Amino acid sequence: MLLHLSISQFTLVDQLELEFGPGTSALTGETGAGKSITLDALGLALGDRGSADLVRTGANRADIHATFDIGGHPEAAAWLEEQEMDAGSEVILRRVIGADGRSRAYINGQPVTLLQLRALGEQLIDIHSQHEHQSLLKKDTHRRLLDEYGEAQELAAETRIHFKTWQDRYRRYQTLAESAEETEARRALLQYQLEELEQLDLQAGEIESLESEQRQLANAGEILSGSYQLAAMLSGGEGDIAEHLHRALQLLTAMPEQSPALSEVAQMLDSARIQVDEAASTLSRHIDGFEMDPERLAEVEERLSAIYQTARKHRVQPEQLPDLQAQLQAELEEIGAPDALDKMASECEALEASYRKVAARLGKCRKEAAKRLADAVNQQLADLAMPHARVELALHPLEKPAASGLEEVEILIATNPGQPPRPLGKVASGGELSRVSLAIQVVTAQTSRTPTLVFDEVDVGIGGATGEVVGRLLRQLGESRDGRGGQVICVTHLAQVAARAHRQYLVEKHADGDSAFVSLRELKEEQRREEVARMLGGEPTAQSLAHAGEMLERT
């Protein structure tokens, strides 16, 4: 329920603070006073598109706050919790539009996108406007109204999902079918290339290991010759490194007195002697175990040659061959087995059957709801001075299945007895279309889950006794809806509608020098009587004031 609306620097509004409560609130004023400005501002707070020309001339920005009580609205509370914006039983929607046209949106003080603002706003307020008279001529609107009335939105959404899944798979099947010959050739090539790579069976790190082994085997003669020379230098007899170290140690030991420096030298020379002995032993074992293996060298070089040749063939580096194999395998799996086309055709048939099953359930639901909705609308039309009009919701089978289902929904009407029902646009006049639209909106609003209903001049083209009926209907919607308290806000030019409201607000336009501004205030009892009298016939007279008093007393 809308509790508070704050509007600042918006079009002709300088500053407005409005408090709303349960029941029906009527916004009235002279033609051109700006009655719809309040609803336009509310629409911005709910996520409508904004522009720089909405900012009051000379101001830096327009700022709109709308505060809602969601204590009795678990769906909105759950949505806020999912978005991590839970703030108790109240939620504040804010919209700021700069003079440069830039827009910012907030929910409970947190920046959000317009999509998020709109998603929450649609759960809080349902706006019915006079422009819906024209949208009522569109068959898409007929289907939407019927699905909402029959509570078939989830089933309709499920139908759309099934249709999309089926069509996506079917398009994939058609693509593969059209290129079946090319696909088969590609499959054969991939299988050949994979067999070649599988036979190669290149292991991780194998290339580096083979190249190291190849270098060692190819230089075996030089390595062995160098090893012998090194062994002779280390401990090969007279004049080797070991002998020189031994003589150096003897010379140090023969000295009569050793300084700390000489003692340190002796320790280092002794350590070097030990290291040389260990090196000589290790080198000796290396020489004893070293083998010249021309056959192994040939094997290694043949293996490396096969790897290099395969890499050149596929135009990749040798170490990239395992990745290439994985890529080819993935592509082969994507193409599928030779019978993949047949399997995909079977899948498409199964998906189509699933779609048709859900769509048939949707069609059955629509058929049942169409009769109920038509009866309810016809009852309202009788109250709206169209007793002979008969509305019918026709379900025409579609030639091709669609995301919306297997049938097209169309509202037909016969305005006179004995006439067959025909499309709205070909039968109803402007005034009749307004009343049909209002009847449908009132009927569908009764099953609406949103706590606040807004009617923006939906009574255009209606007057007299019919206006009394409209006022009564809107008051009933504001008092209770499905056993719940309701809230209705309506912009109206009819005294009969305004008099039926629980409270009334007067919108006035003022001129101040070269500028104009709009104000809005709630009317007290006597003020309200004067405004209803003005709505009845211009300047209030004793007679119109008395009539207005009678109308207000009837509420």
UniProtKB/TrEMBL annotation:
<comment type="similarity">
    <text>Belongs to the RecN family.</text>
</comment>
<protein>
    <recommendedName>
        <fullName>DNA repair protein RecN</fullName>
    </recommendedName>
</protein>
<feature type="domain" description="RecF/RecN/SMC N-terminal">
    <location>
        <begin position="3"/>
        <end position="513"/>
    </location>
</feature>
<dbReference type="Pfam" id="PF02463">
    <property type="entry name" value="SMC_N"/>
</dbReference>
<keyword id="KW-0227">DNA damage</keyword>
<keyword id="KW-0547">Nucleotide-binding</keyword>
<comment type="function">
    <text>May be involved in recombinational repair of damaged DNA.</text>
</comment>
<dbReference type="InterPro" id="IPR027417">
    <property type="entry name" value="P-loop_NTPase"/>
</dbReference>
<dbReference type="InterPro" id="IPR003395">
    <property type="entry name" value="RecF/RecN/SMC_N"/>
</dbReference>
<keyword id="KW-0234">DNA repair</keyword>
<dbReference type="InterPro" id="IPR004604">
    <property type="entry name" value="DNA_recomb/repair_RecN"/>
</dbReference>
<feature type="region of interest" description="Disordered">
    <location>
        <begin position="536"/>
        <end position="555"/>
    </location>
</feature>
<keyword id="KW-0067">ATP-binding</keyword>
